[in-house]
Specification:
The chain is α/β, with parallel strands linked by helices and about 325 residues long. The protein folds into 2 domains: about 170 residues, Alpha-Beta Complex (Quinone Oxidoreductase, Chain A, domain 1); about 130 residues, NAD(P)-binding Rossmann-like Domain (Rossmann fold, 3-Layer(aba) Sandwich), CATH 3.40.50. It has 12 helices and 18 strands. Strands 3, 5, 6, 9, 10, 17 and 18 form a 7-stranded mixed beta sheet that branches. Helix 4 packs across helix 5 and helix 4 packs across helix 10.
Length: about 325
Amino acid sequence: MRAVVCAAPGRLALETRPDLGSPREGWVAVDIRHVGVCGTDYHIFEGKHPFLAYPRVMGHELSGITASEGAAIAAGTPVIVNPYLACGRCAACRKGKPNCCMQIEVLGVHRDGGLCDRIEVPEGNLYPAEGISLRDAAMVEFLAIGAHAVRRSARNTGSALVVGAGPIGIGTALFAKLAGLDVTVMDMSEERLGFTADALGIASHLKAGPDRNAEVARFTGGDGFDVVFDATGNAASIGSGFVDVAHGGAYVLVSVVKDTISFADPEFHKREMQLIASRNALKVDFETVLAAMRGAQVPTDRLATHRATLEEAPAGIARWAHEKSGLVKAIIDV
């Protein structure tokens, strides 16, 4: 079968690998149809991912057709792949939180992913893609991360600031709006802010910069935002966000960084604010995205900005890693 392999940072190539045999018990073979390219994939290509062994087949935003039978899923079923493989035994899994499993393996990161013709996946990680196209099904996972962050905030009224208008921030802003929050988006890019206005109908914007906190104070009359979501992957931005949160508000860290994040304890305590980590997504978040897509609440045609075949993927990923203008989500057609 064909597979796009990142042999080392900066080295991507289409290779031929042995076909998969029969899947192990409880696993199902899936013929991949579409793969969304994520920031994680660009980081792997650029050698910036801290927990990766090369060579690696990337790809974790996946849709496909089941190629074998499962206990509850028939061959030929269009599916969305949940790429977070949990152990099912650890403290997190026992609490129903496989998204933060202590031994989690993510397809395309800890083990080979879906930039190939066929993979095998635990049957419980497959969700029928009824009522949506397989192209759109490949975008469910990244949107589910935003939906999960909004659900973690436990807010459906009040003001929200989403910092960072990349794909994860866009998903967070969209589902914050659908949840009933009054959303403002902050980013350094006028192009990204324009996209959130045109595609998501979120016209309330703040420009990121050195005067960020003063701008937030001015914009909110000194109150701050009831909930702030950081989706930048930038330690300085995360550190700045603490004082943008209203008293009694919440700060949700959607992105993760390697750095140590520090903050002034008096600023944190006087607000009695909540600090919330949001990692990956759960089945309920995938279902939230699916329902929104079926209800035409997600502008999927606007999100899927770039396309390439599997053969074109090595050159495309290398180009998109640094050519970001107009790019929201690139889709590889397998």
